[in-house]
Structure formats: structure tokens, C-alpha cells
Design brief:
By secondary structure, the protein is α/β, with parallel strands linked by helices. The strands form three sheets. Strands 1-2-3-4-5 form a five-stranded mixed sheet, with no helix packed on it. The longest helix has 12 residues. It is globular and about 55 Å long. It starts with 7 loop residues before the first helix and ends with a strand.
Length: 187
């Protein structure tokens, strides 16, 4: 569902190619405004998108067992996923797994995930769905907040970007070194 300019499209393309699957591009206005119909027509098994697409499908009354029965996995990124999204999706297809993921553009797609099934998704929910645990190779800390559960999210990994192209002032402001577990690392 992502356009080619959105970093999430990298995830779509490389996970598809790396697993030997087929990538289905939704190119028409009908496909983009009625995505659940495309899921049904193309017999899609995996879906990646931003959570607001669930709102779009819901408003169009497309979140039905008939339209979503082929899905075995849905992955969301880029916006807060809400418990009500999960409720309507699992009502339509209780057999699938839904991943909520998080990651800013600067790390090229995602660094956390939480997998949910119909019988355990509420454990990951508050007003929004949890970002989940870090994926191996990534470290996350919260800095500068009033307690350990609040603050600026700082991400460190060998996979972080080194800075912004031809924007040294912004690079200096956003990219810095931090101390994690007694070690100075890029963050």
C-alpha cells in the first residue's frame, strides 16, 4: 500500500523478494480507496500499511471476514495503532497475526515490534498499541523524561544513518553519541 517514496516501501519490497513471494502493487484509485477489495481479489496473505488504512477500510465497511480471510499477517508502522483497529481486524479474521512496529526514517524502516494474536492482543494495548521489543541489533533508551517511562526516544545501532544529506546543522542536532551500558555509541 505504501508509495515508493515512503521508507516503509523498502520493507515491502525486500521482505517480499527475500522470501520468494509476489509483490502486489495497488496502483489504481479504486485499489487505494477500497484496499480490502484488493486483498480479497488478489488473495493476499500479507499486508503492510499505516494504521489509518484500517480506518479507511472500516469507513467503507470493507473490514469483513469475506474480504480479509486470506490474510495470515498484517504489519503496521508509521502511525499509532489503536486497540479499536485490532478489535475490528481480529473480528474479521481471528486467525491472523498482527505486528505493530516502530522506527523512524533515520534507521531505515523499523527497530521494534510486537506480535499479537486474537487471544493476547489486549496485553499490548493501552490508549495505543505498544511499540514492542527491540529487534536484535538495536538498542533504545528514553532520555530526559520525568521518569523511566517517558522522554525522548534515542535509538542506537550499527544500522543508523550517519546523518542527513548535505544538512550538517540538522545532522549535528539529531545525530549524536550517547552512553549506553557504559559504552559510548551513536544515537
Amino acid at each position: 500500500f505504501s508509495n515508493l517514496g515512503f521508507d516503509f516501501s523498502v520493507y515491502d519490497m525486500y521482505t517480499t523478494l527475500g522470501s520468494g513471494a509476489a509483490l502486489a502493487a495497488l496502483g489504481t484509485k479504486k485499489d487505494r480507496f477500497m484496499p480490502a477489495l484488493s486483498i480479497k481479489e488478489l488473495d493476499l496473505t500479507v499486508w503492510h500499511s499505516v494504521p489509518s488504512v484500517v480506518d479507511l477500510m472500516s469507513q467503507a465497511k470493507q473490514v469483513t471476514p469475506e474480504n480479509l480471510k486470506s490474510l495470515r499477517l498484517m504489519t503496521f508502522l508509521g502511525e499509532p495503532l489503536r486497540p479499536q483497529h485490532l478489535e475490528i481486524l481480529f473480528e474479521a479474521n481471528p486467525d491472523m497475526t498482527i505486528f505493530n512496529t516502530y522506527g523512524p526514517t533515520e534507521i531505515t524502516v523499523l527497530c521494534t515490534h510486537v506480535a499479537m494474536q486474537v487471544d493476547n492482543f489486549t496485553e499490548s494495548c493501552d490508549s495505543t498499541v505498544a511499540l514492542g521489543d527491540t529487534i536484535p541489533g538495536w538498542r533504545i533508551v528514553l532520555e530526559g523524561g520525568p521518569n523511566e517511562d517517558e522522554g525522548e526516544i534515542v535509538i542506537s545501532s550499527d544500522f543508523n544513518a550517519l546523518g542527513y544529506w548535505k544538512k550538517p546543522e540538522l545532522t549535528e542536532k539529531v545525530f549524536r553519541t550517547i552512553e549506553l551500558d557504559g559504552e559510548v555509541v551513536p544515537g
